[in-house]
Amino acid sequence: MRKHLNPIVLIHRTYTRPPLPFPCPDFNQSFHPSTCILIKNLDHMNQDITVPPPSNSVHKPKLRPTLNSYFNKPTLFKAFFFCFLPFLISLFLIAYLNQRSKNSEMVLLAGFCNDSDIANVDSSESKSVPFQETRTGHACSTMGEPCISCTTFNILAPIYKRLDQQNQSVRESDFRAFWLARNKKIVNWLLYERSSIICLQEFWVGNEELVHMYEESLGAAGYDTLKLARTNNRGDGLLTAIHKEYFKVLNRRELFFNDFGDRVAQLLHVQSVAPFSINQNESVQQEIIIVNTHLLFPHDSSLSIVRLHQVYQILQYLETYQRENKLSQMPVILCGDWNGSKRGHVYKFLRSQGFVSSYDIAHEYTDSDADAHKWVSHRNHRGNICGVDFIWLRNPHKSQKLLKISWAEAAFGIIKYQLKKVSLAENDAFAFLRADSSGNHITYSAFCDALRQVNLTGLSHGLSFQETKDLWVQADADGNGVVDYEEFKRIWDATWLQHMDEDCSLADSNEGIAEDEAIGFAVKKAVLFPHEVEKGIWPENYSLSDHARLTAVFSPVRLRCLKQSL
């Protein structure tokens, strides 16, 4: 009986064609490639099969595989060498190039830091927390009530912060390390001061990382935060934070001026958490209206009317909101960057509406020119310093003029300013307004033409037709269709910035309860930081912002008022 042969051996024995030199993967002998493939396939089918050496050959010891044999094997080694190893090398090169790029950026940043002509991140506020005496979030006692504090701060959006005065296009927003470090310091200061109300301007709403940092940090500290972006995707906006230990937000409104500067305002109606005492037997949870805004920068004098109109819209909305909700007995606090000094039209307009500057009240400064430059709060991109940041307070029933009259007087003030800029005295100004009129009076058409010549009408941001008409009605006091010299003189000499008598006074608890009492606020303290600005000096080593931080502390007081309605 014929002995059964192993198939591999059979193949080998029946193969008569001379073998070609080719290293078979599992053998040290040379076989034809087709033989190797078949043997290999059979080997996978039966792992126990072994191939004995041919009978006519001498058995040789198994040789160590050479490097060439490894390269010819379809093994993991070939995959590693040709695929994975180049991938590792490419990763190493990418990491190396990134590190070089990062080092170059840090060298550039270091150059900015060391350049005295370029704003630095770390300066006079290198410490993580301010001095103890600047903290205002403490409780004080007036009538047994805790004080409330309010901070307003233009934090200078990184998209506007210039790092190189020679190259205005280099902005802080291009360097994450810079704007992140600076804003972390701002947050630390805000958390340390722990004001009841925080109003920020130039808040970079367009950067999610920065927005998250503020919202998360302030939220963890007990604040409700509300942000509002400027229109037309300007990138920055407003952030108002209300501490929940002091107030709860009852309502909020967003004001869009939709004007030349894409400016906005926030209005918050809040209620005190702790009750305020009206008298010995009655307490109330006081309600307050808070406004946060940032007015247009006056790039030229023709924009003064735009800024005045922005304030006019805020006060109009305040009147409407209070009237509709019957909130006449309520303090109003206006915070923000008003982009105008104490000598400006906006300041005078607000004063005519019963508002007082908390900082000036705390330091007993008057509205006179002598006190106009006692303090500063801003150094603009032109290098000029001035006081433009205010926390305005108006207590319930503060005596005020009708809003429309105050607006007209403020607008006439701008007209007078524009005429005086071109060296027109009273008589010359009247002649300019009269133009070619045959009589000794000013006609409506001549009045409109004069306003166009001083850039107050005819522009997209100028007075509207209706506003011009309203001004004319105020000027034509007797309604005869023309403005004579006496009516003009009344406007020219108008002293509409006047100290107005109070309709409210502090209630005397020994004399009983007045017919109409309300809770208002007295300014207890107001501070600017850095402290040098309180002396009218801008410190060169301060770079946390181009604005100073203003904080005011208020204590509740009972007011006895005459009843009046809006």
TrEMBL record:
Keyword terms of this UniProt record: Calcium, Membrane, Transmembrane, Transmembrane helix
Gene3D superfamilies, per database record: Endonuclease/exonuclease/phosphatase
Pfam families linked to this entry: Exo_endo_phos
SMART domains, per the entry: EFh
Membrane-spanning parts: 76-97
Domain EF-hand: 463-498
Name by which UniProt lists this protein: EF-hand domain-containing protein
A GO molecular-function descriptor: calcium ion binding
